[in-house]
Amino acid sequence: MNTITSVQNPSVIGYDNKSFILNGKRVFLSSAAIHYFRMAKEEWREVLVKAKLAGMNCIDTYFAWNVHEPNEGEWRFEGDADCGAFLDLCAELGLWVIARPGPFICAEWDFGGFPWWLGRKEGVKFREYNDVFLKYVDLYFDRIAAVIRTRQITAGGSVILVQVENEYGYLGSDETGRPYLTHLRDGLLTRGIDVPLLTCVGGVEGAVEGANFWSGADHHYGQLIRKQPDTPKLVAEFWSGWFEHWGAPAATQKTPQLYEKRMLEVVQAGFSGLSHYMFFGGTNFAGYGGRTVGASDIFMVTSYDYDAPLNEYGRTTPKYFAAKRFSYFVRAIEPFLLASEPLDAAEAGVRATAGLKVRGRRLGEQSLWFVESGKDERETFHITLANGRTLPVIVNPGEIVPVLDAIEIGEGVRLTSTTAIGCNEIVNGVRTLIVYAKNGQRSTVELDADAEIRITGDRPLLAAASSDGRTVTFDLYHFREPQRVELEIGGEPLRLIVLNQDEMDRAWRIGDGQWLFGCDDVDLTAGSGGGHRVHVSQTTGSQPQPPALEAWSSAALELGQAQGVSVVQPLDFSSFSQPFGYLLYSCRIEREADGETAFILPKLQDTARVYVNGVEASLIREVGSASVRLPLRKGDNQVQLLVQNMGRLNFSPYLGEPKGLFETGYVDGSVQDLRKSWETSDKEVVHLDQAGQLEENPVLSRSFRIEGQDRAVLVGAVAAPLRINGAEVPMEGYQNWFANQSVDISDFVREGNNVIEMPYVKSPVARLELLAYRSADGVQEWSMAGVEDGGPGAESANYSGLGVPAWHTCEFARPKIPETIHAKLKLRLTGMSKGTIWLNGINLGRYWQIGPQEDYKIPMAWLKESNVLVLFDEEGRSPERVRLLFDEQTSREWVERSEGYDGI
User: Fold this and answer.
1) What is the CATH number of the domain that holds 690?
2) How far apart are the first and last CA of the chain?
3) Which of 64, 209, 454, 582 could hold 203 in an S-S bridge, CB 3.0 to 4.6 Å?
4) Above 50 in pLDDT, residue 795?
5) Are 475 and 623 part of one and the same domain?
6) Which family does the record claim for this protein (predicted)?
7) pLDDT band at 272 (very low <50, low <70, confident <90, very high)
8) Is 312 an active-site residue?
């Protein structure tokens, strides 16, 4: 058990095992993960306001070291990198902040947030107690802590938590990481951080540990309660969606319905806060998209939409409204949730009809029941409460519906309801309750009070009162049209608003006691006198026309004339002092006759387009180690590799891998696909390229031959422990679920027959190859050239459409947009191959037309009156079908409405 010691100002912010406590009040943290560095600064306000309108009271953001120190000693805290201004804006909007300065952030961000140049430091080792590494971490902390320190809640700002590192538990144990994490913790404390410290997935003494997950809330809650029983339980990352990588399906498997269910599971388990990771994902501009383990080529797409509640353009999605409904529900019964204890339904005397699973939470005489259907169809179930009252509950398959059982909604007033509550606060001097259910469903709502309840307005058709007048029960149908019931309890007015889910989504809490109804979307714009104007969208049926992209000019990269730097063997990007972009590697190979050769590249970490005598021969996608068939002619041949830095690992024990090509190539090699013909000890034959499943992960073996070659590399879905000819091959840090490794086994193989053994992990596997070659067959001389992908350089020539890399340039005017339209612009690259996009000299990121990304964000804030768009296309494909588009919601017009309660 950890002893928590970091809180210096408990009167401002403190906590116990129930929740965090701010200024003496318990709070449920509804947090939105939003990264300032993944959008233009001009978009911050819109995204943050939409988070607040969805009921978020907190913003979670990483700080990206490589954004703030892109080159050693070159610090950047202005413009889109002005993280201090982002924190100030959060404070202005009344949003607390969870600050996550790293230094490691993962985030599917290049190098996990470390700057590219850090990998060049002699003796550096990442994410451990290493003097070289920590020297530069301390310099970074000097800068970033100064930004955070003055913006803590204890200093008048809104930063309430600061995280130490990130997800260290996925790398090693608390014991392993203690020296390193302790150094980081102390580094924050000594630099003036006095709000509570946080960790996630792994911990350090003096910090509250949170959990990161999407499902399994009970499991994660149990782990935290055993480790830190005296701290609040926070979901530091609740994964609302997932990232996408080139060549994979769209990551849209987490439906809004399942998202809503998982959120209810979080409060059911007892957590007192969750951070939606991501709430708004944004964009991996420039070369900042990262890479992760699981295969050799899991490179992030440029979009970081994440299938999040707000999409890449800041537009609302069905998940946004799911998050909004949940956070409004939590706010309505927050005091109960934060003080309640888990309750076993059977022990409490609660019974339900077959197919309904019931779990509860209790505070005194108040209870909240989570009822979950195990049926295949929607049904009306029945639940009998402890007081003997039986209520009908309509539940969809797999859905969780909350049932409120005598929850106190005000002094002396209790609510029982078989559906969700969306509001419980004083609005224009009247306590207002909103209850809602899915479209076309019924619910039972009962008010019980210490005083008489009178219906002062129109009486609902199905309403019944007890003989003493202190209990009123409503049988409600949730129409498309809102319903309003006016009551008086002990002389105090109470308003009940009955909505269906669609209308609940069109109801907005815009401030304390301020609501708007019947609005598709809302935007709050600062007004005079500290107030704000409210803009409400409505569909116009028309949409501005995007600019046409015409009169393209094109220029080819002349491969044969590229002027490079001579090197003995290829250098990786960092060794060549180039952080991102493209490198062109060139060599010459002499042959005595025409024919093909297997060209072995033992160390290649990015996609490579291979040219022989100026003609494209292959595109290498599977990297780590690779082979390619080269068609060579008699005499001299020029072989070139155009390599794009596709992103550094953002998560792995192998952070800081060299990018590009960093060992010479070898001719006349051999390639063996080793996926077939494995055997178990019982002689059962297993083909790893075929679907199957073996129980208990037996050890498999097979043989292979080496003839006349002294070097061998095993690459692909290697499993550990790996044995060659009975000797174990070291694979430090490797885990079998990584499903890809490039292992030099030259010291373990012998001439002739060899035996390989490894445990079965899964099948099918995409790749498991043996690359063999002779040391004597290495190419001796190379040249390297950086390729200017922001526009054609002096080496370019007129484009002739011959399938060689080319730049395409087009100018367009800024579109004329009415002030009432919030336009979002995107670029659709139909017909292109793979490359980079530049707008007015700004690198918008990589593109690759193999999916899942089709459209690329053009920030409106980065447009000028006249704009220059440049595409660098590796295949030189024609841009004739490339076009600009506005997103669908651009058709919405925004009209001004005075702020305040808009009655129904």
Assistant:
1) 2.60.120.260
2) 53
3) 209
4) no
5) no
6) Belongs to the glycosyl hydrolase 35 family.
7) very high
8) no
Instruction: Give the span between the Cα atoms of 395 and 99, in whole angstroms.
Output: 39
One domain, residues 432 and 472: yes
Q: What is the DSSP letter of 169?
A: G
In a domain, 238, yes or no: yes
> Judging by DSSP bridges, how do beta strands 553-557 and 806-813 pair with one another?
antiparallel
Average pLDDT over residues 612-636: 97
Q: At how many degrees (to 10) do helices 131-149 and 174-190 cross?
A: 50
Q: Would you say the pTM of this structure is higher than 0.85?
A: yes
Query: Residue 722's beta-bridge partner residues?
Result: 729
At 204 the pLDDT is: 97
- Burial of residue 417 (CB within 10 Å: 0-12, 13-18, 19+) is buried
Pairing status of strand 235-239 against strand 197-200: unpaired
**237 is known as an active-site residue:** yes
Residue 138 belongs to domain with CATH number: 3.20.20.80
Question: Last residue of a domain, which of 752, 786, 820?
Answer: 786
Whether the pLDDT of residue 560 is over 90: the answer is no
Residue 153, phi then psi, degrees to nearest 5: -65, -25
Q: Give the position of tokens 């388990």.
A: 269
pLDDT of residue 471: 97
Distances (CA, A) of 86 to 97, 139, 863, 900: 10, 22, 22, 27
pLDDT value at residue 741: 96
Q: Judge whether residue 315 has pLDDT over 50.
A: yes
Do residues 662 and 572 make contact, with C-beta atoms less than 8 angstroms apart? Answer: yes
If pLDDT is split at 50, 70 and 90, which confidence band does 4 have? Answer: very low
pLDDT average, residue stretch 826-830: 98
Residues 6+ apart with CB under 8 A from 397: 373, 375, 376, 377, 378
Catalytic residue among 165, 237, 260, 265, which?
237
Q: Do 857 and 885 reside in the same domain of the chain?
A: yes
Total domain count for the chain?
5
pLDDT for the residue numbered 533:
72
What mean pLDDT is predicted for residues 113-136?
Answer: 98
DSSP 659: -
Residue ending a domain, among 755, 786, 817, is 786
User: Residue 24 sits in which domain range?
Assistant: 13-307
Split at pLDDT 50, 70, 90, the class of 476 is: very high
Q: Which candidate in 108, 167, 260, 503 is catalytic?
A: 167
Domain co-membership, 146 together with 45: yes
